Amino acid sequence: MFNILKEKIYNKKFNIILLILIIIFGVIPLVAKKIYFKNFFINNLNKENYFNALYGTSDIGCSTLNYVKPDILFIGDSMGYRAWDLNLFRKNSNLSVGACFLPSFTQHSLIEIINFIENKFTPKFIILSNNYRIFGLGPDNFEIVNRHKKFLTETDQSQYEQAFKLLFKKIRGKDFYKISLPIEDKIQNYIKNTNDKSFDKFVEIIIKKNIETSGIGTIKDAELALKEIRIINEYKSLKVFCDYINKNNINLILTDLPFSPPLNKLDLSKYFLNNKLVKNYFEKCILKKFKYKNNDNFYPKNKHFVFTDFRNIDFNIFEEVLTGKMIDKNIISYYDFDHMNRFGAKEFTNYWINSSENIFKNENK
Predict the structure, then answer these.
(1) Does some domain include residue 11?
(2) Is 59 helix (H, G, I), strand (E, B) or coil?
(3) Is residue 149 in a domain?
(4) Cβ neighbours of residue 180 under 8 Å, at least 6 residues apart?
(5) Residue 342 sits in which domain range?
(6) Position 2 in a domain
(7) 64 within 8 A of 98, measured Cβ to Cβ
(8) For the chain, what is the domain count?
(9) For burial by CB atoms within 10 Å, which of 38, 67, 118, 298 has the most?
(10) 3-state secondary structure of 170
């Protein structure tokens, strides 16, 4: 009898100790993160580091929305996160800025974006970065939608882990984020000071020889991609998106991104038709809270699409291609038909800001 009583007391003590350990190592850190980490993140964030790190990646922007809770939310695909200099943008706005770009994003992933942000915050503006790959890719791209759903779910599930990683970086005196595509003054200055004709000649050789580039590949790959665009005839995801915009009184800005000069010479008729259909649909369902910006007065140049990796660029190789001495080496990171380099992103963002002053006028007061 004594042994049985002793065993019960022991089990009770063990359960109490176990409960205390769960509270200490499980519940308390979660509560602390929920209550204190947002302030820790905002107060210790190096904005230059953070916003420069948003270029060329989706992980950082999506995973920090719960802390940044931006007034202006940028969404779109990889062409979007390569077209904007969000560090420049936030310096020219009194509104907070954030982003959740998803590689290969299309209209079908709009619902996943809504599900991800709806319980976190409500932006005042959503800027949807539009290009030929966003609308009209058909109902058969749900493999990508599932990939986005998985990515966003895992992003939510890893919030606790990410918070402690940033805490330890702070303890070690490091910036929170690594800039995957850093700004190198040497490359910026080379692009800025080199004659446009040199880059045009460089791209003519790439097209003539059908050389593979970053992003979409060769010019023939680009032609094929444009042919695969379908005309929109299904609006389910757009309706859900409209309902979300109207329910939360959000302003939607659909803005076209610049295309490289070679793409602009291809058959973009399906893209333009889809643009018209989507624009008309949003105008009817959102009314005054919708704005469309075509950016026709921004003139993209080939120099905006060269050296897109901004790393390991050998200017001698560039010169050798121009002079016809070399065309067989790997120059895949020397041009991209789809994605802008940091120099181009800065010029486009600066143009967009200067030509869009009235869009945020009432909110900036």
Answers:
(1) no
(2) helix
(3) yes
(4) 53, 56, 57
(5) 47-354
(6) no
(7) yes
(8) 1
(9) 67
(10) helix
